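Researcher: Hi, I'm a grad student and pretty new to this. My advisor asked me to get structures for two proteins we've been looking at. I'm not sure of the right format, so I'll just paste the first sequence and hope you can take it from there.
Model: That works fine. Here's the first sequence with its structure tokens right after it:
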Amino acid sequence: METVLLKIQEFADQAHGEQLRKYSTDRYIVHPVRVMLTCRIYNASLCMQAAALLHDVLEDTAVDSAQLLQFLQGTLSPDDAQHTLLLVEELTDVYVKSAYPKLNRSKRKTLELERLRAVSAEAQTIKYADIIDNCSEIVSSDPGFALHYLVECQNILECADRGNEELRQVALETVSRELAHLTHK
């Protein structure tokens, strides 16, 4: 299994290319790896771990669903390839500014929230790990934006409640702690 995940990690790293994390000098891949490792702690399946590694590929790179599926079919069983692609698609924001330029951020996030409410429990679990990993970097690097981001995360965690409950609680505690940290400065 580790060999398969390493291949998927390499694909994600290549897809993200020279992208760096927004608030650090780290290569982008460090974030999906941390998300995957968090999911693994909570007994995530191979498909979930693969999707965690790939969760930003469709949203933030030139790779499209067909290309991702082609790669996955050469790496995983046919059923696992399809399932992993489905999870990545569920984790990919639909209501983005480029697709909905007439909607403000608040309206896009409200629509995205409703979409996330309906995704699978597995995708919600990965989203919890994603939120946990993003929180501290954003709070320490961009406190002005962090307040808005943390409220959005809190809203996601309140409505996307079908994933791993233990990890959801960790995410809720993380967001609450970071909000408290921001408001007590």
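Researcher: Oh nice, that was easy. Here's the second one.
Model: And its structure:
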Amino acid sequence: MLEEEYETRRRLPPHLRPVIEPEPAFSYHVRDAVRYDLPAIREIYNHYVRNSSITFDSSAWSLPELRQKFDRILLGFAYVYPWKSKAAYRFSVENHIYLGPASTGKGLGTVLLSQLIERCRAARMREMIAVIADRGAEASIALHKNLGFTIVAQMGRVGYKYERWLGTVMMRKSLR
């Protein structure tokens, strides 16, 4: 009883209470990437290079490097590129998805990967492969599983970053 009285007495009258504006709803628009987007794409990707082990790159992308990579990409960022350079692999692609730190956990990864899958089907690709770090990428593994990817291989200690060995989880999805 005494505690309730204390809480009631300490509450500010309505006209003195701070007005807290609600945070705007998270929204996005999926579209094809254009060269104008490359600086923003570079910033998103380089965040993961510097702060995580989900990419095995250990140095940040430069803008010329990214322009060269962009010229080889089949689709946007999320993007895919050929799994291997040999002609026999021409119907298999490897996917990559990178989100800005403030955009994670809001369903955008599902939208991007779903669009990527549909666009690859339309382009007559047959297999999509994901090679995911085995540490710190649990959300990516769950995302791929939720969209029908299955784990086909795990390789330990194939990459070295931040003074530690890292492995990969390889997942695949048949597109036909």
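Researcher: Is there anything I should tell my advisor about the second?
Model: You could mention this: The chain has a mean pLDDT of 88.
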